Amino acid sequence: VQLVESGGGSVQAGGSLRLSCAASGILFSINAMGWYRQAPGKQRELVATISSGGNTDFADSVKGRFTISRDNAKKAVYLQMNSLKPEDTAVYYCNAEIRYYSGVLRGSWGQGTQVTVSS
């Protein structure tokens, strides 16, 4: 299974971007999905997660500005980012807990998409 991300780009502070991530391949189900980010010289950090039932969690730094949603039929997760700040600049990675027909549960990562916010 592959996770394919799209929607990154460059925007000025205060602007918005929407990231998308879709799983392709044979799988049984997807549990939690989420977005992480990694800025230059920093560790990868959690941005937002959403459970299979739609429960969400956000990093304090993005609460009130970002929303996460998913479309289970499309095996996709989205991150709507509003009121972007320069400190949101990072490579954003999609993550999903995938259950295979074999019963194996395995986490998968997307390739990353760059988000650059200029002041």
Q: Can you offer a commentary on this structure?
A:
With 119 residues, the protein is mostly beta strands. It contains no helices and eleven strands. The protein has strands at residues 2-6, 9-12, 17-24, 29-38, 45-50, 56-58, 66-71, 76-81, 90-99, 105-109, 113-118. The strands form two sheets. Strands 2, 4, 5, 6, 9, 10 and 11 form a seven-stranded mixed beta sheet that branches. It has a four-stranded antiparallel beta sheet with strand order 1-3-8-7, with no helix packed on it. A hairpin with a 5-residue loop joins strand 9 and strand 10 (105-109). It is elongated. The termini are far apart.
Computed Rg: 14 Å
**SSE pattern, N- to C-terminal:** EEEEEEEEEEE
Q: Overall pLDDT, averaged?
A: 97
**Low-pLDDT residue intervals, each spanning 5 or more residues:** none
Quick one: how many beta strands?
11
- Overall SS class: mainly beta
Distance between the termini: 37 Å
Shape call: elongated
How large is the count of helical segments?
0
What about the largest sheet?
7 strands, mixed
Strand coverage percent: over 45%
| Oligomeric state as shown | single chain
The level of helicity is under 10%
